[in-house]
Amino acid sequence: MKQVGVFYHPAFKTQGYLTLRGRLQDFPGALEGVLQRPNVRLLECPRASREMILKVHPREMVAMADLEDECRSAYESVGGVAAAMEALAQGELDRAFCFTGAGGHHAGLREFWDSSCFNDVVIALTHVREVTAARRFAIIDTDATHAGGTLQLLGEDPEVLHICFCRSNYCTADGLALEVNVYPSSGSRGPQLFLEKLQKYLPKVREFRPDLLVWYFGFNSHVDEPASLGLTETDYVASCGLLVSLADDLGRPLLVVLGGGVIRRVAAAVIPGIIKRLSED
Length: 281
Known about the structure:
Elements: E1 4-8, H1 18-23, H2 32-35, E2 40-44, H3 50-54, H4 59-67, H5 74-89, E3 95-98, H6 120-131, E4 137-141, H7 148-154, E5 160-166, E6 170-171, E7 177-181, H8 191-208, E8 212-217, H9 233-250, E9 254-258, H10 264-278
Helix pairs in contact: 5-6, 8-9, 9-10
């Protein structure tokens, strides 16, 4: 039975960006059913140390973020992702889901914007490389907005594969940073196109053979969200199933990090289904 950790902090619905804390008002209560499963644990996100964050972002940027009231839950957001990734790399968990109170993938070397304060995933993998044997990471980003900060921070890291399913098509010369256009055009198939492209590019992860697989998931692609890609609850569970199967085939742990999305009822409809799928063999 796969061991699943769900990382959450009460601050995520009382502090930080108004739209992000508003979306989580039903949690963790909305997880009551799945949290009763014997292989699922609810864990509180620890607060990341300033030293951990300074290994990725310069001191002046961290100081500016500290002045922003909307970044008040950023330390717990980063701390949860780092703790989850470390537990996965150490073999203490097989799969994990991280709630966040502040976004991550827009935060670059010296700037933060659009609800992102610190780049949680890059800070976490930097930390995990220091304390575990994990070196190679594959990041699948299906948030509806572009992961510019993450791409900037990763630079030409030869041990990270990053595939962003967004609104453009691009591939670096080394093939380790890819952008895949999944935005539906007028009359297109929407969710079907998204799932087809996800299936098409996942074999690249298999070829890369990472030590750990990260899914940066945003429900802002939901049909009712402003940045919609037309996806529904069923499409998210199907996406999760594809990533679970891939991680299992590779014998690697899977981390799901919550990115964008603002509508409370969409969060309550989508997130429990993803965690339920993570808890299944």
